[in-house]
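Researcher: I'd like a candidate sequence for this fold, 577 residues long. If you have to choose between options at a position, lean toward the conservative one.
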């Protein structure tokens, strides 16, 4: 729960009507607006602070994360800030293919260091700025290095190519074209089971094994069905002779020979037999389990890998212990722009530079709608002296929160609601609140001045216009709120008084109400006093060139605009009677 008081904005894209309510409302009045219930079980999915909302200039509406779509502008590496084309990401994956790697233990960036310089380099180094090889990757945070896994590099660049070459060492086997001619028929199962365990080649990486299996199954489909019989082929196009013959046979009728050939039983497809075709046996050395158990007894459970370490990279999927973890290539990041789902208008676009964190376009809602702020008119603790130990910021904040967490039921409490206009045009605001707050605890709410103007956010302002319409100029202790009068007014802000009578918490009745209205209210925050306020803003703005081309109005003329939204004001907590 946020610190009291707080203000949340409800996005208009969310509706809390159930199917039964929708049918009933369509019969009675389809345009009837219902009061927003902040205690609804779905209210948490539609309430956002000002900082999380954007604004669409074309629709003139608030946009939440469900109201916009994200488009990937580019891919880049967060370590080297190198931009990667989308075609390379589709073919090579979403990891940096340069020299950027992270530690498998703590995920910190790894640095490339030289192992030890040679004697000739001590005497007359060719390039003093470059370290001498061999090289290794080391973590400056947890002191992990690739030497723990037995990995050394001959060059300081092209680390990815060297790791792939090391990974594929020992996995070489006869080419598929050499062994394909010797397996024209289905091999018996007994021949596979009688193979020696020692003759099983080492396991291939998952990417290579998947590519081998894909190639094998494509060959099997081509051999079993044939391009001439079925009309399909791996690389055939729609204008190939096989596909044209199949289409003509469909629309022109099949001959007796074609029907007889179609009824022929296709040759069964066989499975992969060895590693050249993508097969990987689950057989392990006889002492593999005993070795793992012995290592677990000596080094303990801390030496084993965690689930997050195993899923961090395909090379570490089957690793059991930490001393077998390979370095992890850095994941690429994306820079994304946001578009409105309704009109496809761009509402946020970052700058194209990789090192920049600024936005080229960013339409924030807090720069286009009035900002609401709530505070107590006369806090009960304001007259009490503040002790010396309560002068720290944490103690003052705790004392401030205590004032809002002891609202007594049945006693009127007056709040000051301040609205700030961020626009450069004067606006007229209309506030509407329900007579009683929705939920299990009904509190009475009254806005003393529901309609009032707010000045523009400019440097010029009229003090005489501001003083008119406000309460009488008296001291803060003697001033009394008046109906139809604003409490205070500034250049681009106005303060009005909101009177609240908190409802009573009834535990016995509250439990029954919670059961009966479980689909409408969660019942867990009944003591929290949240006031739904409907805000409607009207103003006149000049017609821009884009609006003039779309609507046909003359450029520079004034047009009326308005925006309406629900807001929730967290006033405090109701104390138990």
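Model: Candidate sequence:
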């Amino acid at each position: 729960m946020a610190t009291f008081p707080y203000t949340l904005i409800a996005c208009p894209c969310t509706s809390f009507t159930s199917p039964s309510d929708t049918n009933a409302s369509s019969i009675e009045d389809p345009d009837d607006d219902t009061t927003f219930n902040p205690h609804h079980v779905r209210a948490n999915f539609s309430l956002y602070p000002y900082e999380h909302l954007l604004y669409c200039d074309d629709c003139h509406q608030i946009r939440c994360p469900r109201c916009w779509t994200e488009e990937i502008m580019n891919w880049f590496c967060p370590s080297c800030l190198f931009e990667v084309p989308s075609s390379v990401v589709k073919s090579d994956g979403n990891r940096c293919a340069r020299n950027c790697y992270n530690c498998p233990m703590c995920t910190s960036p790894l640095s490339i260091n030289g192992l030890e310089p040679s004697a000739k380099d001590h005497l007359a180094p060719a390039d003093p700025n470059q370290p001498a090889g061999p090289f290794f990757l080391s973590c400056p945070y947890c002191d992990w290095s690739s030497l723990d896994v037995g990995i050394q590099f001959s060059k300081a660049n092209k680390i990815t190519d060297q790791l792939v070459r090391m990974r594929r060492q020992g996995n070489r086997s006869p080419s598929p074209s050499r062994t394909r001619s010797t397996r024209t028929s289905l091999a018996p199962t007994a021949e596979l089971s009688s193979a020696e365990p020692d003759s099983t080649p080492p396991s291939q990486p998952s990417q290579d094994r998947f590519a081998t299996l894909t190639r094998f199954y494509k060959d099997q489909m081509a051999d079993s069905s044939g391009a001439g019989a079925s009309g399909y082929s791996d690389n055939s196009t729609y204008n190939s002779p096989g596909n044209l013959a199949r289409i003509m046979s469909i629309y022109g009728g099949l001959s007796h020979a074609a029907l007889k050939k179609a009824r022929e039983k296709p040759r069964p497809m066989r499975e992969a037999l060895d590693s050249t075709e993508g097969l990987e046996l689950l057989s392990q050395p006889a002492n593999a389990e005993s070795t793992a158990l012995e290592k677990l007894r000596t080094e303990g459970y801390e030496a084993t890998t965690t689930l997050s370490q195993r899923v961090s990279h395909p090379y570490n999927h089957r690793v059991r212990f930490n001393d077998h973890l390979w370095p992890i290539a850095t994941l690429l990041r994306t820079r994304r722009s946001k578009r409105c789902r309704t009109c496809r208008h761009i509402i946020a676009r970052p700058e194209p530079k990789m090192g920049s964190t600024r936005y080229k376009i960013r339409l924030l809602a807090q720069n286009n709608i009035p900002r609401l702020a709530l505070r107590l008119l006369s806090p009960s603790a304001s007259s009490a002296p503040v002790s010396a130990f309560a002068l720290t910021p944490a103690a003052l904040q705790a004392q401030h929160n205590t004032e809002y967490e002891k609202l007594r039921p049945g006693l009127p409490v007056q709040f000051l609601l301040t609205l700030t206009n961020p626009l450069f045009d004067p606006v007229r605001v209309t506030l509407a609140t329900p007579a009683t707050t929705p939920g299990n605890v009904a509190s009475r709410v009254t806005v003393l001045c529901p309609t009032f103007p707010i000045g523009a956010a400019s440097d010029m302002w009229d003090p005489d216009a501001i003083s008119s319409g406000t309460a009488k100029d008296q001291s803060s202790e003697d001033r009394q709120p008046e109906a139809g009068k604003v409490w205070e007014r500034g250049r681009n802000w106005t303060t009005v008084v909101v009177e609240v009578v908190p409802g009573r918490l009834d535990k016995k009745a509250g439990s029954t109400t919670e059961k009966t209205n479980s689909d409408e209210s969660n019942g867990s925050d009944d003591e929290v006093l949240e006031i739904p306020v409907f805000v409607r803003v009207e103003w006149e703005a000049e017609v821009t060139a884009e609006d003039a081309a779309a609507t046909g109005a003359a450029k520079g003329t004034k047009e009326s605009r308005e925006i309406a939204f629900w807001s929730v004001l967290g006033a405090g907590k109701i104390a138990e009677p």
